[in-house]
Amino acid sequence: MLAAGHLEPRAGSVDPTAALADVQARLGNLQPAAEHVQAMLARGLEYGPAFQAIQRVWKAPGEALVELRQPDPGPSFRAQISPSLLDAGFQALIAVETEHEAATYLPVGIEALQFMGDARQPAWAHAIRTSDGADLVGDVTFFDACLLYTSPS
């Protein structure tokens, strides 16, 4: 399947700086990248170096915030968002799922994409589960690196 589209700012969007501060205030369970990789392996998801864009994960029931590492785009990079970073958003949503920690999920659709700032250089992804059923459905918002954000030490 091939898809095409374009990204544009959404009118009336939430203040991203306030949104990140609010998310960080709610989340307290910090998971380093190595633990995230191990959790994905336990689900049967093995990511090579190009798809290990998550630096840290903050989690709470139904919600996760991930700090992203910018991939090397290479000379032929033309996408509006790196496939590695888009996949990291899916990984953030999978990290939200705690009830079925051994389940393997595969993205089958995207209803809409929303970026806070520059979609080519997101630094954070915030995932919220929006369904209670067996399907893992949720919202993922990407935030760019220009936002003011103080991470805990």
**Main β-sheet: number of strands, strand sense, barrel status?**
6 strands, mixed
Point out poorly predicted stretches.
1-7, 147-153
The number of E-state strands comes to 6
How far the N terminus sits from the C terminus, by CA atoms, comes to 43 Å
| DSSP helical segment count | 3
Mean pLDDT score: 75
- The H-and-E topology, N to C, reads as HEHEEHEEE
Radius of gyration: 15 Å
Percent helix, as a range, is 10-25%
Sheet with the most strands: spatial strand order:
1-2-3-5-6-4
Helix/sheet category: alpha+beta
Strand content: 15-25%
Shape: globular
List keywords for this structure.
single chain; 153 residues; alpha+beta; six-stranded mixed β-sheet; 3 helices; 23% helix; disordered C terminus
Provide an overview of this structure.
The chain is α+β, with helices and mostly antiparallel strands. It contains three helices and six strands, in the order αβαββαβββ. It has a six-stranded mixed β-sheet, with helices on both faces. The longest helix has 14 residues, at 83-96.
Write the layout of secondary structure elements.
Elements: H1 16-26, E1 29-32, H2 33-42, E2 54-60, E3 63-68, H3 83-96, E4 115-116, E5 122-129, E6 138-144
Parallel strand pairs: 4-6
Antiparallel strand pairs: 1-2, 2-3, 3-5, 5-6
